[in-house]
Specification:
This protein has about 60 residues and is an all-alpha fold. It has 3 helices and no strands. It has one domain. About 80% of the residues lie in helices and about 0% in strands.
């Protein structure tokens, strides 16, 4: 899922940058917004799995800021 969100960022950024009419930045914004939303969930799950038990709470709370 993290790689999928990276692809969403890679596709969404040039679409958002190449804004020539109203629908182009809107499409890029939707693509990047979906990638951010999925990334928030996927990153927390990944950090939860790889972090040691004694540091799990502090590592996950650092991800929020």
């Amino acid at each position: 899922m993290i790689l999928l969100t990276d692809i969403g960022f890679i596709i969404g950024a040039p679409v958002f940058y190449s804004a020539t009419e109203f629908i182009t930045p809107l499409t890029g914004r939707i693509l990047m917004g979906c990638a951010v939303a999925i990334s928030v969930v996927a990153d927390v799950a990944y950090l939860h799995e790889i972090s040691p038990i004694q540091y799990r709470g502090s590592i996950l709370s650092c991800n929020m800021y």
